[in-house]
Amino acid sequence: MKPPNATWLVTGAAGMLGQDLLVRLRTEPGAQVVALGSTALDITDPEAVATAVAEHQPVLVVNCAAWTGVDDAETREAQAARINGDGPRHLAEACAKSGAKLIHVSTDYVFAGDADRPYAEDAATGPRGAYGRTKLAGERAVLDTLPEDGYVVRTAWLYGAARGNFVRTMIRLEGVKDTLDVVDDQRGQPTWTVDLADHLVRLGAAALAGDAPAGVYHGTSSGETTWFGFTREIFRLLGADPERVHPTTSAAFARPAPRPAYSVLGHERWRSAGIEPIRDWKSALAEAFPALVAAERG
After folding, report:
1. pLDDT tens digits for range 200-247
2. Are the CB atoms for 52 and 90 separated by under 8 Å?
3. Which domains does the chain have, with CATH numbers?
4. By C-alpha distance, which of 153, 131, 169, 122 is closest to 21?
5. If you compute the radius of gyration of the chain from its CA atoms, what whole number of angstroms results?
6. What pLDDT does residue 1 have?
7. Rounded CA gap, 187 and 196, in Å?
8. Which of 113, 139, 256, 281 could form a disulfide with 71 if both were Cys (CB 3.0 to 4.6 A apart)?
9. Where does the RmlD-like substrate binding domain start and stop, copy by copy (predicted)?
10. In this structure, how many other beta carbons lie within 10 angstroms of the beta carbon of residue 262?
């Protein structure tokens, strides 16, 4: 049974996902929340991490802190590794000492992106860029340090109202561009941060109740699309003509870091914790859309 008034410590609490996670935790019975943004807790500092965990005595830590600059990581891999690799290790070591459980948010970039069917939670990893390598290091640190109490939740294509993201950018561009060329050779699962936050809380509650096996879970929406298909759906929800969105290839938008051509993740592990996977991406986007438009145009 989950103890009453259990403390959940959230790192990276000021980010897009962190903010929605805090909103969701307000509705979780018995959850007392300690929210620490990067200015309040530098997860690359092992002493600071140990002190924070010892002081607040959480039963569960959710790590939303991350270096998310995929392209910048190509030239600054050491700095990215401190946050994405060393940071989770420091948190895991502090949790091991205190007895807390840890949920660590990771990414689809740990895979090569060359599959033709959804990646299972136990599929072989093979990151093609620096960002993916640093995130995989963080995953391994959590799972190796906390084999019974460590949880890794991989996500991808996140959007939300709290910060700038692909959806908000497309909403803005629809108002200023006659047509848009959007990549149609990368497949993935657009995922609303509100949905992911809900699943992180559900997983945490199940873990504390002893109902969720430790290990890897995939926190992405069901279904799949391309950035092109995603943008056409955004235009449709805006009441704009989707034909204004034209398909193109990744080669037209050369970037320093390679992008996975196929980022579709499987979701079977959720059922082992008694939790249904996240809903279809289109239904989530439709519900999220009014807040996204208000955030971008307000």
Report:
1. 999 999 999 999 999 999 999 999 999 999 999 999 999 999 999 999
2. no
3. 6-164+190-223+264-279 (3.40.50.720)
4. 153
5. 19
6. 45
7. 19
8. 256
9. 9-289
10. 20
- Angle in degrees, 0-180, between the axes of helices 281-297 and 166-174, rounded to the nearest 10: 60
Residue among 197, 167, 154, 162 nearest 286 (CA): 167
For residue 285, give both structure tokens.
């986007």
Taking CA atoms, 57 is separated from 54, 76, 90, in Å, by: 5, 34, 15
Determine the pLDDT at residue 298: 82
Q: CA 221 to CA 152: how far, in whole Å?
A: 16
User: d(Cα 51, Cα 41) in Å, to the nearest integer?
Assistant: 10
User: What six digits make up the tokens of 52?
Assistant: 């924070």
Query: What's the whole-number mean pLDDT along residues 257-266?
Result: 96
Residue for token digits 């926190």?
A: 219
Residue 183's DSSP bridge partners are: 248
Considering the candidates 109, 119, 131, 151, report the single residue annotated as catalytic: 131
DSSP state for residue 271 in the 8-state scheme: G
- Which residues is 34 bridged to in the sheet? 9
Instruction: Give the span between the Cα atoms of 155 and 147, in whole angstroms.
Output: 21
Cβ neighbours of residue 221 closer than 8 Å, sequence gap 6 or more: 189, 190, 191, 192, 195, 278, 279, 280, 281, 284
In the chain, the DSSP E strands lie at: 6-11, 31-36, 60-63, 101-107, 150-155, 158-159, 180-183, 187-188, 191-192, 215-218, 225-226, 245-248
* Catalytic residue list contains 131: yes
Q: SS3 sequence, 141-191? A: HHHHHCCCCEEEEEECCEECCCCCCHHHHHHHHHCCCCCEEEECCCEECCE
CA gap 78, 81 in Å, rounded: 5
